[in-house]
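[scheduler] slot 2 assigned
[scheduler] job type: sequence-to-structure, two independent chains
[scheduler] chain ordering preserved from manifest
[runner] begin chain α
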Amino acid sequence: MSVLCICLLLPKMALGEDGNLHLLDKSSCKDVTVAYTIEWRKYGAIKQFAGMVSFDDVIQSEREISSNLKYMELRYVVSDYTNARQPRMSDTERQDIRALRLGGFYSNPRIKFAFVTDDVNVKNTIEKSILDGETLHATQISPNQVISCVCYGCG
């Protein structure tokens, strides 16, 4: 788990070398635990979720990926739910995620998505999205991260 800093006052921000905004002054911040971390690789990103993952966590992680300056160069995104559980996602929530990915598809259609999970709700949601034609990018579901990394060339 990582710690997210939420500022109570308008913070001073700077664009970091990693393409994300960073706080310059953390004195007015409060620490909050979040349900995921993002590990950036040369050509991809690995999102590791932990605990009970809400729809807001998933949407926020999608926004962090698609708004990063590296987005145009990404070739894969692995979402690892090995240590996480997720309540069933509604059709409206799935459509919200699809809307984010639709814009991302036109910006970078080469990205492949992999989901590592043994959670039935996560697996069912992804399979339903694939069957309903909601996934525009190549998508794979695996119970094992090694298989996903071999298929998507993690590095």
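[runner] end chain α
[runner] begin chain β
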Amino acid sequence: MTFIKQKDFIDQYKTIIIGIVFVCMAWIGLNGYKDYGISYDEPDTLYNVKVTMEYIQNIVANKIFNVELNTEEYDHYIWASNGCTIRLPIYLIAQMRNMDTSSAQYYRWSHLYCYMIFFLAMIFFYKLLRMIFASQWLSLAGVMILFLSPRILGEAFYNLKDNNFLSIFIINIYFWAKAYLKPKKWNLFLFCFVSALCINTRIFGGIIFGVGIVLLSVKQERIFSKFAFFIKYSLIAFGLFYLMTPFLWTKLFPHLVTLIKNNVSFPWIGYMLFNGKVVKSTDLPWYVLFNSMDNYYNSYSFCYFCFLGVDNLFDRLL
């Protein structure tokens, strides 16, 4: 078979080949989730889900059955401001099956669930790249660069906070691009919904909504329409975020301020290896942030390609 014939054969069946690649990604998750142990902060993350669920049950019981409501303990719980909506489904499934949430089986299910969210994000990432690039192969290459990043792929199974945020962040960008290209009510609602979920997972997820809603508002023809559009969909997004964040239900504004403060100044003190010595996190020099980012994530090269992609995206959208 000549090179030209091989190329024609690959182009003819490229959709099937790309589908097989994604099936292989799913297979990796289905066969690899049992191989991971429990990470050091995983019990705390899952315990936060349990505490939040009990808090929701207390509020519901108070509203329906007029049971006395005591939120003081939850209000002072250090991780109460950490959103966990994305992790509630696996906890509810475990509860319905009467599964012990401290068992190894529950943690394995949690790892599979975490990976499936990551896998879903890879699908949306491919769809996002297809909006930017005409070539399906180039879009698939972008997905594989992200998917095969060792730390990202490894933590896709057990990092219930950062990797989940990365996944929702990617999906959020996709729905913004879709709403921008086709500003129908359903697309705009999905953008608001995923934005609320992204902000609930990490408050910094508000970056996408903040930039996205401004760009969408600018597209409106009249000045009044621009402000009305901005206010309308900002309220929808905040309303969804409020529903997803039980911490705000009893004391909206004080708890909102606490939530922002806790996420801006993360309340963690521990010890890290730095220059061959174990150093307390609060004693690390300021520049360690840039050093660690580049060591772990190749952030500088990623930023370069990110800016190239953003520039290409705006050329096509604007």
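[runner] end chain β
[qc] chain β: The radius of gyration is 22 Å.
[scheduler] slot 2 released
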